């Protein structure tokens, strides 16, 4: 499996004064269960062990998209974190974290500094004492991370300058999530987000929505209506798009055949998978594989 895992040095051609943020490092990693964390090949200056923890000279935003683990910082007692969680790391603030040994986790991160970043992260809603943010499963969040990775990987300096704007978008979503969390969620929102988490945990399996409703003691009609009100799409469409986005990632990161990808993502027919993929994603699965092969030549 191809895993994006890369640290980059500041590019002198990208003047942070013009954008207010400058990206220092960036990455994506799937850390499997029962493996040492961090990996032994973690770059010097960023590696840490649990006993000593770590200090950084920069800001970092870390997003856990799957799995769970523990986070501790600046005297904050150990906090359990799960999928859909962002935690912020502040300069010169001690911290440590690790994934649960039984689940591992999938993590995205970006390290940065700059005047705008400093201004935003000094707002009252952000603080080293409350660095954990529940962002949830926002497709745009991962899309922006993907765009950020693509712009960093390109040799086009003009496109690389867009990286700062992608980072600002990530910080904007985190900021909005903090404000929303501070206002408090209604019982309906909390219930739907819990059910949403269940869907993410079982995304490639056959999900019985009525059984899920029984588990949370709500009617199926209430669930369908409330889900669409909160997430602006139906449960079935949400699950479908979740599977297609994961299928895209698997095609990009593995050499599995399209048929294998279809079954891996919960589709029982390669023909249906290819047809619905083309309909929703506006291109064929094989086109993604061609792009992948071309980019590695």
UniProtKB/TrEMBL annotation:
It comes from the Bacteria. SUPFAM superfamilies: Homeodomain-like, Regulatory protein AraC. Keywords: DNA-binding, Transcription, Transcription regulation. InterPro entries: AraC-bd (IPR003313), Homeodomain-like_sf (IPR009057), HTH-like (IPR037923), HTH_AraC (IPR018060), HTH_AraC-typ_CS (IPR018062). The keyword Transcription applies. It holds the Pfam family HTH_18. Residues 193-291 form the HTH araC/xylS-type domain. This is AraC-like DNA-binding protein.
